TrEMBL record:
It comes from Heliornis fulica (sungrebe). It catalyses: 2 cob(II)alamin + A + 2 H2O + 2 H(+) = 2 aquacob(III)alamin + AH2. PROSITE patterns: FAD_FR, FLAVODOXIN_LIKE. One of its GO terms (cellular component) is cytosol. The gene is Mtrr. This is Methionine synthase reductase. Its EC number is 1.16.1.8.
Length: 696
């Protein structure tokens, strides 16, 4: 009995969009195969665990959201452990291992996990296993899979050490050192299923050898290169280690066509939603520009929607109608689209903590679920691929899906699914014998997320109006998808406002079109730091190429209105660095000159990366290059006058280059080495005077 108790460990997860929870569930599933019991809870469920008295090892899986914040489910936990009155030995009894999830495209990589890890250490907790930091930019599985592999030995060593300290009998200790064989309810005897492709199994029911032969025939008939649908050695000749088959936990009952779908606001838990009309739509780029950029104006006069320049709004958007129809056709449910379905948890499911997904109504039409609730464009996780294997009848297709979710096929998964943005529809076209059930889609497809956009206006300057700017996202055709796609939200918005664009000229400041009768649902996403300085006399610099200029239009509108209303105030100088490809094609806001003329904007520096120049010295192409031309001004504003520095736009190709330029400027002007300059920049970030609003 004592020995069994010592095999328990506490498994906590903190998730924003479900990623950390899915990984925790994978750990929970594998634990049984190692003779261990994972007591799994969301970190917010503080009534179900108590770290102050916890004696068993603790495993924490935590994601990062926003600009480095812990997920919403961890806010109370983080606030509690950051209490400065806690003694340094508060968690001295605690042994833990932590897996942090993040995206290196963002400045504060894995900061949610790092914050918890650092604070637990400060309070005396000890690692029984090294911290893992997984990067969604290159593929979480590159760190997650080996981290989970090593977890079991680390846990057993922790149990052995703990038992020896507590004087456990030598027989009980010895029993822990052996890996027990536990028959799993999912017909798997370990955390992976080893698929042996031996000649004697040629006639067996799973026909794995036949699948291997089929794939080689097809591959040799075409080419020697791997693709989404076929493999080459060594993957095609490997015995495969594939994930545990996730237990089903959703049950779907089809009903009649009578009833009403729930209101869209019931799908949003992040804040109050508002239905508002679009009153204006303007194309800011010329027709021959590489990207199409639109500005939309919303009427919020009759709502309580409140915002500051620098905040964001979220738009609730549907999936593409034709994609939903195609999915219904492939699933054989075209005739059932308008039928209501009742979704509930399957009785007797083996899934730990199975619960009704919050983003799925208990009763709605099938088409409503596929249109408004599920992210059908999501890149399928390996657990989803593993489940799809069981829905596939063709032997060759089944084998390839097994390869793509296996350890041996990790690089193929990254190349042909993750990097190619392959979605469920692409898979169903590529593997036509795969016929998943509706409950499987509800179990594995994530929630359709609202899309976030920076506000590009000031409520002080334009009362009752809200503007935002976006590029229409384009996904080019690829081998897995013969046609190009537009972004889920930007494609929908562009079609929605087409009548406004057609009833007005296509440049800003020209004839106004009529308002749309159809409304869009939005909710606010305040930004706690990316705001104008509280003291108007403080100078600041803004760097915003492309649509990164969006929040700064709101900044300048707000500043102009303040200057008009408070003529006795002192206002600091303002700098704006803007860049685009071509001056005559995508210079988004040429009325910036007006801000210069009325004194709202002190300095405007622009660059055009694709325009040719006849000058002897070629002008700088990118904003990071322009910044380097003003080193003394940057140092004066940031250090001598304690001003602010705002960066908005693309992370990888711009924001990193800007921070490198600032580091070089600090190093040169302060006459210190680069490491010291980087420390100075880190201090500016900590003081919230070097601020970023970036995306990947």
């Amino acid at each position: 009995m004592c020995c069994d108790l010592k095999r328990r460990f506490l498994l906590l997860y903190a998730t924003q969009k479900g990623q950390a929870k899915a990984i925790a569930e994978e750990i929970w599933q594998q634990a049984g195969a190692h003779g261990l019991e994972a007591d799994m809870h969301c970190i917010s469920e503080t009534d179900k665990y108590n770290l102050e008295t916890e004696k068993d090892p603790v495993v924490i899986v935590i994601s990062t959201t926003g600009t480095g914040d812990p997920p919403d489910t961890a806010h109370k936990f983080v606030k509690k452990i950051q209490d400065v009155t806690l003694p340094p030995d508060y968690f001295a009894h605690l042994q833990y291992g932590l897996l942090g999830l993040g995206d290196s495209e963002y400045t504060f990589f894995c900061n949610g996990g790092k914050t918890v890890d650092r604070r637990l250490q400060e309070l005396g907790a000890q690692h029984f296993y090294d911290t893992g930091l997984a990067d969604d930019c290159v593929g979480l599985e590159l760190v997650v899979d080996p981290w989970i592999d090593g977890l079991w030995l680390a846990l057993k060593e922790a149990f052995l050490l703990q038992n020896k300290r507590e004087g456990m009998s030598s027989d009980a200790v010895a029993s822990l050192s052996a890996t027990p064989h536990v028959e799993h309810d999912l017909n798997l005897s370990s955390e992976v299923q080893n698929l042996k492709l031996e000649d004697e199994r040629e006639r067996s029911s799973d026909v794995l050898t036949e699948k291997r032969v089929d794939i080689h025939l097809v591959a040799s008939a075409r080419d020697k290169e791997p693709s989404l649908v076929h493999s080459v050695p060594p993957v095609s000749q490997s015995a495969l280690s594939i994930p545990v088959l996730p237990p089903e936990f959703i049950e779907v009952d089809f009903q009649g066509t009578h009833g009403e779908n729930p209101h869209l606001s019931s799908l949003i838990s992040e804040g109050t939603t508002f239905e508002v009309p679009v009153t204006k739509a303007v194309q800011l780029t010329r027709e021959d520009a590489i990207k199409t950029t639109l500005l939309l104006e919303l009427d919020i006069a009759d709502t309580d929607f409140d915002y500051q320049p620098g905040d964001a709004l979220c738009v609730q958007c549907p999936n593409n109608v034709s994609e939903v129809e195609e999915l219904l056709r492939i699933l054989g449910l075209s005739e059932k689209g308008e039928h209501f379905v009742c979704v509930k948890v399957k009785q007797g499911t083996k899934k730990k903590g199975a619960a009704h997904p919050q983003h799925i109504p208990e009763r709605s039409t099938l088409k409503f679920i596929l249109t408004w609730c599920l992210e059908i464009r999501a890149i399928p996780k390996k657990a989803f691929l593993r489940a799809l294997v069981e829905c596939t009848s063709d032997a060759g297709e089944k084998r390839r899906l097994q390869e793509l979710c296996s350890r041996q096929g990790a690089s193929d998964y990254t190349r042909f699914i993750r990097d190619s943005n392959v979605c469920l529809l692409d898979l169903l076209h590529a593997f036509p014998s795969c016929k998943p059930s509706l409950n499987l889609l509800i179990e594995h497809l994530p929630k359709l997320q609202a899309r976030s956009y920076s506000v590009s206006s000031s409520n002080l300057y334009q009362p009752g109006k809200l503007c935002f700017v976006f590029n229409i996202v384009e996904f080019p055709a690829c081998p897995a998808r013969p046609v190009s796609w537009k972004g889920v939200c930007t494609g929908w918005l562009s079609e929605l406002v087409a009548p406004l664009l057609h009833s007005s000229e296509t440049r800003l400041g020209t004839k106004r079109g009529c308002s749309l009768t159809e409304k869009i649902s939005i909710f606010a996403r305040p930004n706690n730091t990316f705001h104008l300085p509280a003291d108007p006399s403080v100078p600041f610099m803004m760097i915003g190429p492309g649509t990164g200029i969006s929040p700064f239009i709101g900044f300048l509108q707000h500043r102009q209105k303040l200057r008009e209303e408070h003529t006795d105030w002192e206002f600091g100088e303002t700098w704006l660095f803007f860049g685009c490809r071509h001056q005559d094609q995508d210079y988004l806001f040429k009325q910036l000159e007006r801000f210069l003329e009325n004194g709202t904007l002190t300095h405007l520096k622009v660059c055009f990366s694709r325009d040719s120049s006849t000058a002897e010295v070629a002008p700088p192409k990118y904003v990071q290059d322009v910044i380097r031309l003003y080193p003394k001004e940057v140092v004066r504003v940031l250090l001598k006058e304690r001003g602010y520095f705002y960066v908005c736009g693309d992370k990888k190709h711009m924001a990193d280059g800007v921070s490198d330029a600032v580091v070089d400027i600090l190093s040169m002007e302060m006459e210190v080495d680069k490491l010291e300059a980087m420390k100075n920049l880190a201090v500016l970030r900590e003081e919230k005077r070097y601020l970023q609003d970036v995306w990947s």
